[in-house]
């Protein structure tokens, strides 16, 4: 809770809500996966190159 509250813009209510929603954060293999699950990363739409 202390770490989340130290983030700019996250108060006690927001930190408590994040902890309640995430539950056991150890289920995420990386911070990027957690951020993606939370929906706080921008979407990237990219198609692979094809050789003709």
UniProtKB/TrEMBL annotation:
Domain Transposase IS116/IS110/IS902 C-terminal: 2-49
Matches recorded under Pfam families: Transposase_20 (PF02371)
Any GO BP: DNA transposition
A molecular function (GO) term: transposase activity
Domain of life from the UniProt record: Archaea
Descriptive protein name: Mobile element protein
């Amino acid at each position: 809770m202390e770490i989340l509250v130290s983030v700019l813009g996250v108060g006690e209510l927001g930190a408590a809500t994040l902890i309640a929603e995430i539950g056991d954060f150890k289920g995420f293999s990386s911070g990027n996966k957690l951020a993606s699950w939370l929906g706080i990363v921008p979407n990237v739409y990219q198609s692979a190159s094809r050789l003709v």
